[in-house]
């Protein structure tokens, strides 16, 4: 029996996930949640969804009475994740929630506790955590093939277009590039180094205060200090393209990946040679693996649960505080 999933938020990423799920072996798209009836009509036809599995934001809570849906994948703007995830949990359905899981660490913590109390899983849509070349580098690091890890660099950014989109609205986004794309460098540092940061420092550059208003970061450089003495040096930006790169350096070798988080093939090499795992659509692998986690209790090699997402939210908040104060911020 597959994991029967409803997608909430039929936007551009929702469509990408729905398309990717066509190739899933363990997960199946069976339901829709949308405020736009015309989208529901066209998706229903394209994906063969039954009427009884379609909801809007008003009648969504009735999903609790629908035995044919196991999980809801929340793919709405960041500022709505908390409400949407909590309503899903209270309806007794497992929650898969896009990144960033919330717009504050307090909201993320509340989501974790509501899901735990409701006895449902909360998984964050971290697709890189299941990608084959990424996992290969992590396995090599765990096996000591890079020796002692000394340094990580993460570069994450793109030039954002339409100035009216929700990503540039602080209420719906919770922040700018950091919440959207900088989070990949935070994730990368944590899974590549294999430790949790103790402190952060950060600096912000804003060249366009009209497009990037108060509460929307344009470019932030940040550093994270780890218990083993490693410092990760990272860049998050909405105003430069061609920034999708990870570099991990150790006493016996290195790994470099570029692109490191884009949708297409993840390419790179280590001191031992190129990374050669074949590309599989990330969201297909992610949804099959998440189905195995929910249905069989399988453990992810790199965790993607709500508590992991909460760690990232705490780091993001510390980065924002470090930008504001100019001080090093300790993560307890
Ligand atoms: P989008 O704007 O294309 O889609 C958002 C959807 O939410 C739209 O269908 C919109 O109608 C709906 N929506 C519901 N209530 C809304 C409201 N009050 N205001 C605005 N829209 C509302 O955005 P997207 O690119 O699909 O991003 C959605 C989420 O997915 C975000 O959290 C984003 O960070 C995440 N995302 C993740 C990845 C990834 O690789 N994991 C990639 C892209 C986006």
UniProtKB/TrEMBL annotation:
<keyword id="KW-0560">Oxidoreductase</keyword>
<dbReference type="InterPro" id="IPR008354">
    <property type="entry name" value="Glc-Fru_OxRdtase_bac"/>
</dbReference>
<dbReference type="Pfam" id="PF22725">
    <property type="entry name" value="GFO_IDH_MocA_C3"/>
</dbReference>
<dbReference type="InterPro" id="IPR036291">
    <property type="entry name" value="NAD(P)-bd_dom_sf"/>
</dbReference>
<dbReference type="GO" id="GO:0000166">
    <property type="term" value="F:nucleotide binding"/>
</dbReference>
<dbReference type="InterPro" id="IPR050984">
    <property type="entry name" value="Gfo/Idh/MocA_domain"/>
</dbReference>
<comment type="similarity">
    <text>Belongs to the Gfo/Idh/MocA family.</text>
</comment>
<feature type="domain" description="Gfo/Idh/MocA-like oxidoreductase N-terminal">
    <location>
        <begin position="3"/>
        <end position="126"/>
    </location>
</feature>
<dbReference type="InterPro" id="IPR006311">
    <property type="entry name" value="TAT_signal"/>
</dbReference>
<dbReference type="InterPro" id="IPR055170">
    <property type="entry name" value="GFO_IDH_MocA-like_dom"/>
</dbReference>
<keyword id="KW-0732">Signal</keyword>
<dbReference type="InterPro" id="IPR000683">
    <property type="entry name" value="Gfo/Idh/MocA-like_OxRdtase_N"/>
</dbReference>
<dbReference type="GO" id="GO:0016491">
    <property type="term" value="F:oxidoreductase activity"/>
</dbReference>
<dbReference type="Pfam" id="PF01408">
    <property type="entry name" value="GFO_IDH_MocA"/>
</dbReference>
<protein>
    <submittedName>
        <fullName>Predicted dehydrogenase</fullName>
    </submittedName>
</protein>
<feature type="domain" description="GFO/IDH/MocA-like oxidoreductase">
    <location>
        <begin position="142"/>
        <end position="255"/>
    </location>
</feature>
């Amino acid at each position: 029996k597959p994991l029967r999933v409803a997608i909430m938020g039929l936007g551009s990423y929702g469509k990408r996930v729905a398309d990717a799920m066509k190739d899933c072996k363990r997960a199946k798209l069976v339901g829709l949640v949308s405020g736009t009836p015309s989208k529901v009509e066209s998706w229903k036809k394209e994906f063969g969804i039954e009427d009884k599995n379609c909801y809007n934001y008003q009648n969504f809570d009735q999903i609790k009475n629908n035995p044919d849906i196991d999980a809801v994948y929340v793919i709405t703007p960041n500022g709505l994740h908390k409400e949407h995830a909590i309503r899903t949990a209270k309806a007794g359905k497992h929650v898969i929630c896009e990144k960033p899981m919330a717009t504050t660490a307090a909201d993320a913590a509340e989501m974790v506790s509501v899901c735990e109390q409701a006895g449902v899983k909360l998984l964050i849509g971290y697709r890189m955590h299941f990608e084959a070349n990424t996992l290969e580098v992590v396995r090599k690091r765990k096996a000591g093939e890079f020796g002692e890890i000394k340094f990580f660099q993460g570069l994450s950014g793109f030039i954002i277009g339409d100035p009216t989109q929700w990503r540039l609205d602080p209420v719906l986004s919770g922040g700018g590039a950091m919440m959207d794309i900088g989070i990949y460098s935070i994730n990368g540092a944590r899974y590549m180094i294999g430790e949790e940061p103790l402190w952060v420092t950060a600096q912000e550059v804003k060249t366009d205060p009209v497009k990037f208003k108060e509460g929307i970061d344009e470019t932030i450089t940040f550093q994270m200090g780890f218990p083993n003495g490693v410092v990760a040096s990272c860049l998050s930006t909405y105003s430069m393209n061609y920034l999708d790169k990870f570099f991990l350096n150790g006493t016996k070798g290195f790994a470099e990946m570029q692109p490191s988080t884009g949708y297409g093939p993840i390419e790179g090499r280590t001191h031992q040679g190129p990374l050669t795992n074949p590309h599989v659509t990330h969201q297909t692998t992610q949804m099959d693996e998440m189905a195995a986690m929910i249905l069989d209790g399988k453990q992810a090699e790199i965790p993607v649960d709500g508590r992991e997402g909460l760690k990232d939210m705490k780091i993001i908040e510390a980065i924002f505080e470090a930008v504001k104060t100019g001080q090093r911020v300790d993560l307890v």
